[in-house]
Amino acid sequence: MPGREETATDRRVVALCRCGKTGIPPLCDGSHRAVGFRAPAPPPSAEPPPGTDERGSQSPRTGLTPEA
Ligand code: FES
Fold first, then answer.
1. How many Cα atoms occupy the beta-carbon half-sphere of 6 within 13 Å?
2. Residue 35 dihedral angles phi and psi, to the nearest 5°
């Protein structure tokens, strides 16, 4: 599918490169430090999708209203 690629990694934590200088695109390899890259703005707000909690975990849909 155009525009979709999979990248295999054994890293437990990954970040996408925003500076364009990484040696392992699309992942950040820390090269941004050497080039002095500073993000022009913080990334967009990470609002949790509907039906998830603030950590992105899916909430059970029981149909029950929580008791007060
Ligand atoms: S943001 Fe590009 S290497 Fe880290």
1. 2
2. -95, 0
| Mutation pick for ligand 1 pocket among 11, 16, 28 (CB with most ligand atoms within 8 Å) | 28
**DSSP category for residue 23:** S
Answer for the pair 27, 17: CB distance below 8 angstroms, yes or no: yes
Pocket of ligand 1 (CB under 6 A): 17-19, 21-22, 28-32, 37
> Taking phi first (over 0 means left), then psi (-120 to 50 degrees means alpha), and beta for anything else, what does residue 63 get?
left
pLDDT in tens, 7-60: 888 999 999 999 999 999 999 999 999 999 998 877 677 676 677 665 555 545
